[in-house]
Amino acid sequence: MSTAWAGGTDAILERMEQMTSLFVEETRKSMYKGESATHCEECGEEIPESRRLAIPCKYCVDCQTALEKGSK
Ligand SMILES: [Zn+2]
After folding, report:
1. Could you tell me if residue 50 is inside a domain?
2. How far is the centre of ligand 1, averaged over its atoms, from the C-alpha of 65 (Å)?
3. Cα 47 to ligand 1 centroid, rounded to whole Å
4. Quick check: is 17 in a domain?
5. Does the pLDDT at position 4 exceed 60?
6. Per residue in 48-57, pLDDT tens?
7. Are 5 and 22 in contact, with CB atoms under 8 Å apart?
């Protein structure tokens, strides 16, 4: 255990948290880069226009939900 960390740990953790959330944000953006697909890449189901306009997406609601849950 080193005392060199005393006082600095909170700042380091805070910075790491900021970097992590920034990274997640960037990843999300790059995942949805570009235009929406008209049909789901997973099951081929047509994606409703309202959904496509709301967020650029590649999957239908069902597949998106399944992917986010990690059950696929
Ligand atoms: Zn689908």
Report:
1. yes
2. 9
3. 8
4. yes
5. no
6. 888 888 888 8
7. no
pLDDT, average across residues 33-42: 82
| Centroid of ligand 1 to alpha carbon of 67 (angstroms) | 10
Domain assignment of residue 37, yes or no? yes
CA 20 / ligand 1 centre spacing (Å) = 30
How many structural domains are present in the chain?
A: 1
The parent domain of residue 55 ranges over 7-69
DSSP state for residue 36 in the 8-state scheme: P
Q: Are the C-beta atoms of residues 45 and 60 closer than 8 Å to each other? A: yes
Report the C-alpha gap between 49 and 19 in whole angstroms: 34
Q: Could you tell me the distance, in angstroms and rounded to a whole number, from the CA of residue 9 to the centre of ligand 1?
A: 45
Within a domain: 2: no
The alpha carbon of 41 and the centre of ligand 1 are apart by a number of angstroms equal to 7
Contact residues for 39 (Cβ-Cβ < 8 A; gap 6+): 45, 46, 47
